[in-house]
Amino acid sequence: MLETILIAFLVAKLKGYDIKLIFKSWAIYPIIVMEIINCIVQVMIFSGNYSAVSYLAMSKSFYLAIYLCLVYKYEIYSSAIIGSAFMIGGGLLNDLAIKANNGFMPVYPTLSYLTGYTNSEMFNTIQDIHILGNSETNLKILTDFIDLGYSVLSIGDVFIRVFVFLIVYNAIKKANALTAGGKITC
Length: 186
Prior knowledge:
Elements (H helix, E strand, L loop, with lengths): L1 H13 L14 H18 L6 H14 L1 H7 L2 H24 L4 E3 L3 H5 L6 H4 L4 E3 L13 E2 L4 E2 L1 H26 L6
Parallel strand pairs: 1-2
Antiparallel strand pairs: 3-4
């Protein structure tokens, strides 16, 4: 979700907020550590080492929970509630796609073939819920078709990332408001 964080930084910068203020608090650093771990896992996958794929599935809930550090630190509870609604909605959309496809999430890689992130044989190697999409796929619009070259997302995944965007963006906004008000707390 590194790109989601970077988009939040970009939007905050375009709105005139000072991004570096968020780095003055401990609350951003658990997220940075998880992003570094995620980048290492992505490099492993690009290298053909798929042993860490099961780790990614298990760590997703923990990763999203780490954002609560920012929520509590900056008291951005409204953003967390709105983001949680997006996260629940995204999870439900993903569950609907999985249920409609006999317990599997069809994937339609395009750019990922060109970047070398995936190949058709990988779907036979990795035993998880992802399968290569085909003409028999149901609810194609809810499956993984948004290819970033290093990950293929569904609409549900995009909704889940809205949570991350809202938390990071509003934490930056709140850090700026606290600084402007003379209350810099770490």
